[in-house]
Amino acid sequence: MEKEVFTMEQIAELDNLTILHLAAPIIVVSVLLEWYVGVRKKRDYYEKRDFMAALWIGAGSAIVGASIKIVLFTTSIMIYNAVPWAIPRSWWGFLVGFIAVDFFRYWAHRISHEQRLWWATHVTHHSSEKMNFAISLRTGWTSPLKFLFFLPVPFLGFDPFTFFVCHQLAVLYQFWVHTELIRKLPAPVEYIFVTPSHHRVHHGSNPQYIDKNYGSTFIIWDRMFGTFQQEEERPTYGLTTPVSSYNPFYLVFHEWVDIYKDLQHARSLREGWDILFKPPGAVVTAYQREQEVRDVPEAPALQLAKSIPDDMELEEQMSQPESRQVG
Questions:
Q1: For residue 195, what are the domain limits?
Q2: Most buried of 53, 66, 70, 114, CB within 10 angstroms?
Q3: What span, in angstroms and rounded, lies between the C-alpha atoms of 159 and 89?
Q4: Model-level pTM?
């Protein structure tokens, strides 16, 4: 069978393949139900300012996604047309395509935690200290940069439309795993698929939970690559260094601003490279070391030692006349 070559005119067909808007009513009902159950059970699933921040960030992500959709789709068409092979658009081709998309989502997600540049695109999603369905909307406005990690999909021969639909389904799957309402599921499901239990671990800042469970739909990638962690104690959600702001612009861009400041103090290309591609929190410049020392509070013993005058200060104090108030 001769390979189908796609044209730029077919980009208009994208609107017919958009399925995310079909899920909007389900998302709204799920959020309302989760909020209602939280109120009835006196659980603090939602906090007003945190929820509003998630809505504003989600709205911004939707606008950015719609603005660059054509660029991303055009890129995938060009790559797909350039390779001499193709995987047929069939039920099995769609299934393999979905698995391929999920595999690359695992690595895009993992690298977003392991390299600071990519962490800046993802930190927004982890900045909340809550876990609820609305957190799935909290996607950084620069996250489309991670499209680079998905370029192998059209290169492997998956046509752009299959790629587009598979990616949307993977994004939709992520919605329901952001909740505390659903506890453990049957063992076979927990073994193969990402569940709310697995994803609560991923959002935890507990030492044993950090940088675990990167899977999007399938948790088997984490089991294969050594990043799986079972849910044990209740996670403490949020960043290891909490962000106190609810300003959506700050939540989206604060790490980019910090990177820019650190790059200004880089004294070599190597230091600049390390700032961008070493793990978040890595100290690679003298400026960062100075900041780290300045931000670390003094130990109580050291503070006590500083409060005790040395011998010379004691002599000076004893030699001065005692001052008294005259009433």
A1: 8-225
A2: 53
A3: 8
A4: 0.86
